[in-house]
Design brief:
The chain is mainly alpha-helical. It is built from 13 helices and no strands.
């Protein structure tokens, strides 16, 4: 079995629409398929395969890339730059000067937003891009979108490391509120993985889904509190917080930059949506998996 090879990063990391299959991954797939004929096995049995696919995606993203790991921080930098323009406009209209906290708040939210965009984009196309694997060898297909999400999380970790250095240089400091960060990242991962599963499944049956996703991701930043805090909108700020991603981003900014605890109400709201989206997407994915080979 041989996959068609594509120059995945010829136009940068976000243009990767297909991936290559290594002999190691093929061998792992065949070994896992030989171990069980049951389609109800959990992902834990395939953890080695999952790790291989994650590592494969990471290598493909950076192989023969001139900019290397700079790709991981490029998108957050562009988001921060756009946020600066928005803050200048807000400052001009309101008459309030821009302060360091506002800029760092945008930076703290730009990194997880960039992760969300990349993970959803790659996750949506993960099944179609690996159609040879999907049609010829059995393994839990959910591994594909989840591997795409976790590979994007590697970029997130690189960008977060750079952000940590910036925060140290800016003398923001650290408080006990930072212990909320793992909880917030878990909610972010759960919500993103749920969307990736659902959209990967939908894109397999309806190929124009990926184009709709691109449109939503392009303009979604204006309906998510990334460039500005929801509090800037006054009594209308709650509208932005209805987006389950909004409270997560605002909470990350609060615990990292402002040293304040997240709002319990909005945190529960986002956590509930994250769990609901993931469980619902997982159920739909499992119900549709039997038809993947025919649809692809």
């Amino acid at each position: 079995m041989k996959l068609e090879q594509t120059e995945a990063w010829e136009q940068g990391p976000t243009d990767m629409s297909a991936t290559t299959q290594s002999p190691v991954v093929t061998a792992a797939l065949r070994e896992a398929a030989a171990e069980t004929d049951s389609r109800q096995e959990g992902l834990f049995q395939y953890k080695d395969l999952l790790l291989m696919l994650i590592w494969r995606d990471i290598k493909i993203r950076y192989k023969q890339s001139i900019m290397g790991f700079f790709w991981a921080v490029l998108m957050p930098i562009l988001i921060i730059g756009s946020g600066m323009i928005v803050m200048v406009v807000f400052s001009t209209i309101s008459g309030h000067p821009i302060n360091k906290t506002d800029v760092l708040g945008v930076a703290a939210k730009a990194v997880p937003w960039a992760f969300f965009v990349a993970a959803v984009r790659f996750g949506t196309n993960s099944l179609v891009a690996n159609k040879e694997l999907v049609t010829k060898i059995y393994f839990p297909r959910a591994i594909m979108p989840i591997a795409a999400v976790l590979a994007s999380f590697f970029d997130f970790a690189v960008a977060e490391s750079v952000l940590a250095i910036v925060l140290i240089v800016s003398r923001v400091g650290v408080s006990v509120q930072i212990f909320w960060l793992p909880v917030l990242l878990a909610a972010l991962l759960l919500f993103t993985s749920g969307l990736a599963l659902l959209l990967a499944c939908a894109n397999l049956f309806f190929r124009d889904v990926k184009y709709l996703v691109e449109v939503v991701l392009t303009y979604g930043i204006f309906f998510t509190p990334v460039f500005y805090s929801a509090a800037k909108l006054g009594k209308w700020g709650w509208i932005l917080m209805l987006n389950p991603l909004g409270p997560i981003l605002e909470s990350i900014s609060s615990v990292v930059v402002l040293h304040q605890p997240p709002s319990p109400t909005w945190l529960v709201y986002s956590a509930a949506w994250s769990v609901l989206i993931f469980l619902l997407s997982w159920r739909i994915f499992q119900k549709s998996e039997a038809a993947f080979a025919e649809a692809i």
